[in-house]
Amino acid sequence: MNVTTSTLSLTVADVDASRDFLCTYLGYQVAMAADGFASLTRGDAAADIVLLRRGAEVLPPEQRDRLATGLILALTVTGIETEERRLREAGAPITMPLRQEPWGERLFQLTDPNGIVVQLVEWAAPEDENAA
User: Fold this and answer.
1) Quick check: 102 pLDDT over 80?
2) Could you tell me if residue 104 is inside a domain?
3) Would you call 67 exposed, middle or buried from its count of C-beta atoms within 10 A (0-12, 13-18, 19+)?
């Protein structure tokens, strides 16, 4: 198998709100769109995102009323301080401030109007517990 791209499909109540959030704050672009549907892409290695309106008949009946919940869309970035500052100044809803974990993960989170959590991550060298 050769995976050529990755796409995350999310069922949301308001496709336009998530589309606008992802395009405005995270640099996604609309590749295709129709009523209750948007396909978003970026020019880098980030996963493409498909947004489907809740109840869409293209989904199997048992999936139509499920919403994207409990999901964290994590994007690994460079220059995380610059991104956090840019997003804060742009008025993005930062719902977890920038922090660093002991294992070297630096991260912060935004939450879109449909409740989708987007986590931006940058990896730093882990703290050396044995350093004197």
Assistant:
1) yes
2) yes
3) middle
